[in-house]
Design brief:
Helices cover 31% and strands 27% of the residues. The protein contains 14 helices and 21 strands. Strands 1, 2, 3, 4, 5, 6, 7, 8, 9 and 19 form a 10-stranded mixed beta sheet that branches. α9 links the parallel β13 and β14.
């Protein structure tokens, strides 16, 4: 019987015939030979198998053909078939640097308390041109909030630990790395980032991770699974502050957006939430009060907002403090409060619940909705524009810009009472898809939102 290899590399392929040969060859030319390569074709219909079959005689290569089973089922098949002490997935459209396996395996061998290592990486286009380099945080010295996971592919992990945490959850068809990351965190296992690029990640527009909405919703479900397993529920109330047209001509809460008034979009999304315990609408406007009493009686708590607190450009904190005192005079004290603006009508209950679960999972003081900004930004130094963001292709994780969107802020009651601030302290975040992040700030936005509302309502 041949001794087991130190490392199992498994390569998952579905219709990546254009790239798979380069991916396979990147393993075969490693400056490290204590490995096996499992090539798993997940029911490809292109020329992938013609290419894969050329490697059948290679003693380090094992080929598995199967009907399409999806990523996480295939991950578990690879886990079952693997012989290595360590295991690493390589996607068929990506490839390794020549020293990748040696560097990762050596770190794990030299540090037996580590269970997982993950490197930085190059970004390439469909033509193999390097378009960027992603450099992760220094996880040994910089990171205390572990809400930015290791990459799902090209992360090396001890097989026994992967089995210990239950392998991969087959109820999810993407974001396997995020689920594994949370399992490692909750197991209090040790991990390490290698601040050196050791693989090439291909951005060709067809990646599994490109479907933004499905990706983010899957992350929400993964977070929900973990908090329900490990964390206690927190009582959360939602505050929806509304000025109304009497105080602000730009405020149109009762104007129809699609088939229902603007304010209804936010209220309905909160009512669909599984984690919001109570809704408070705070307004000085009698027409809004009458609308709530007519359509949401018994479902929404009305707080008559002092006009002084509702003036334009007035900080929202005094309104929240007043509404909280009003609410707590007749109800149990909440653990957290979510402030929601009605000008973000397409923010779904999925993101509302995700924000609450992020607070539970990472024990942060506040959570905001964000989008990641990949554009180049400039500032003016008095002599002209100068780049604010890097334009040399090196993407440092610490330099990534986040835009606050979605008209949502979740804050723990304790932090708010101590500081009188809606967000601050240890801030967590959730990423929203583009439509959920959309905010009405102008007449043009209103017209566009009517178009989006038709799509949302299936008109």
């Amino acid at each position: 019987m041949q001794p087991s290899p130190l490392v199992t590399v498994y390569l998952v392929n579905y219709n990546y015939g254009a790239y798979i040969e380069q991916s396979i060859e990147s393993v075969l030319i490693q400056d490290f030979d204590d490995y096996e390569l499992l090539i798993i074709d997940d029911g490809s219909t292109d020329n992938s198998m013609e290419i894969i079959n050329k490697y059948r005689k290679n003693k380090n290569v094992h080929i598995i053909e199967q009907k399409n089973k999806g990523l996480n089922t295939t991950n578990n098949i690879a886990l079952k078939l693997s012989s290595g002490k360590y295991i690493i997935r390589l996607d068929a459209d990506d490839y390794l640097t020549e020293d990748a396996l040696r560097k990762m395996a050596n770190i794990l061998e030299d540090n037996q308390n580590l269970v997982m290592v993950f490197p930085d990486y190059f970004e390439i286009d469909k033509d193999n041109q390097v378009i960027g380099q992603v450099q992760r945080h220094d996880f040994d010295n910089e990171v205390t909030l572990f809400d930015q996971p290791a990459h799902g592919a090209c992360t090396m992990i001890k097989k026994e630990i992967l089995l210990e945490v239950g392998g991969y959850d087959e109820s999810f068809n993407r974001q396997d790395g995020y689920d594994l990351w949370l399992k490692i965190l909750h197991g209090n296992y040790k991990f390490k980032n290698i601040n050196k690029p050791l693989f090439y990640y291909r951005d060709h527009g067809n990646n599994l991770t490109k479907d933004e909405k499905l990706l983010l919703e899957t992350r929400s479900k993964i977070i929900e699974k973990h908090v329900n397993k490990y964390k206690n529920k927190i009582k959360t109330i939602a505050l929806i502050p509304v000025r109304g047209p009497k105080l602000d001509p730009r405020s149109n809460p009762l104007e129809n957006l699609g088939s229902k008034p603007l304010i209804n979009w936010t209220i309905d999304s909160v009512l669909n939430s599984k984690l919001i315990d109570e809704i408070i609408v705070s307004t000085p406007d009698n027409s809004v009060i009458n609308h709530i009493e007519k359509y949401y009686s018994g479902k929404v708590v009305l707080h008559e907002r002092n006009e002084r607190l509702a003036r334009i450009n007035k900080n929202i904190s005094p309104t929240l403090l007043d509404a909280l005192d009003f609410y707590e005079s007749n109800h149990n004290v909440p653990d957290a409060i979510m402030v929601l603006n009605i000008e973000s009508p397409f923010r779904s209950s999925v993101y509302i619940d995700k924000a609450i679960n992020v607070m539970r999972l990472f024990n942060v003081d506040s959570v905001i909705g964000v989008t990641i900004e990949d554009d180049i930004f400039y500032t003016h130094d008095g002599n002209g524009l100068v780049p604010y963001t890097k334009i040399d292709g090196l993407k440092l994780e610490r330099d990534i810009l986040y835009r606050k969107v979605g008209g949502m802020s979740l804050v723990s009651r304790k932090y708010f009472k101590n500081t009188n601030k809606i967000f601050g302290g240890r801030i967590g975040h959730i990423q929203l898809d583009k439509q959920s992040a959309f905010m009405i700030n102008s007449l043009y936005d209103w017209k566009l939102s009517n178009f989006l509302s038709q799509k949302e309502e299936g008109v």
